[in-house]
Write a structure and sequence with these properties.
Number of helices: 6
Strand content: 25-35%
CATH superfamily of the largest domain: Pseudouridine synthase
CATH architecture of the largest domain: 2-Layer Sandwich
Number of domains: 2
Helix content: 10-25%
Order of helices and strands: EHEEHEEEHEEEHEEHEEH
CATH topology of the largest domain: Pseudouridine synthase
Number of strands: 13
Distance between the termini: 11 Å
Largest sheet: 9 strands, mixed
Structural class: alpha+beta
């Protein structure tokens, strides 16, 4: 059993949970122990497209993780979060209500190649240690900025304090960091309050079933090579 499986991750599930679910279904229904891995972490809060690699394709996980990605994002203005998303400790920061013109002008500043610092609560490794583990231990690591690319931000919908948009970005882009940077540009503070990944390279969410009820038959039908 070799190939790629697309699944729609639910909110609250970790990427590891999804891998374990698929691996368990395969083993329970076939008796086979098959290697299964994912190709790019989605935070538990986030939903949407997760690409799994099965069998010999686990050696090619890096190829898929480097693909461009598209997200539907929801950003809440006027407050900040310790984790840059809704799972952290939220603190109100500003009562200023930016106009729609101000918001669109701020978004335009981030189109193109930008310097971005990944969140302290992220899976990035610094000196062999996961950043989020250090942050949880109260010893955040020094994370250097990196160059990423925001190709476009479309479908902008703004109704203070909620800002929604669709972003097509390069691999390595953190939408949580983008949300924080938007809040800083507007002078209001902001955090990521919702995220759904809809596309990775040529792979689209519309071809991915929800993970909770996936079966062995579906897995066999979904395997792509």
């Amino acid at each position: 059993m070799d190939g790629v499986i697309l699944v729609d991750k639910l909110q609250g599930w970790t990427s590891h949970d999804v891998v374990a679910k698929v691996r368990g279904v395969i083993k329970s229904e076939t008796g086979q122990k098959v290697k299964v891995g994912h190709t790019g972490t989605l935070d538990p809060m986030a939903t949407g497209l997760l690409i799994l690699v099965v069998g010999s394709y686990t050696k090619r996980a890096g190829e898929f993780s480097k693909l461009d990605k598209t997200y539907e994002a929801e950003v809440t203005l006027g407050a900040v979060s310790t984790t840059a998303d809704a799972e952290g400790e939220i603190t109100q920061k500003s009562a200023h209500r930016p106009t729609e013109t101000e918001v669109k002008a701020a978004l335009n500043k981030f189109i193109g190649e930008i310097s971005q610092t990944p969140p302290a609560y992220s899976a990035i490794k610094i000196d062999g240690r996961r950043a989020y583990k250090a942050a949880r231990a109260g010893k955040p690591l020094q994370i250097e900025p990196r160059q990423v690319k925001i190709y476009e931000m479309t479908d902008v919908n703004y109704d203070y304090p909620i800002l929604k948009f669709t972003a097509k970005v390069s691999s390595g882009t953190y939408i949580r960091s983008l949300a924080e940077d938007i809040g800083q540009a507007l002078g209001t503070g902001a955090y990521l309050s919702g995220l759904r990944r809809t596309q990775v390279g040529q792979f689209n969410l519309k071809n991915a079933p929800k993970i909770e009820n996936i079966t062995r038959v579906e897995i066999s039908q979904l395997l792509q090579k």
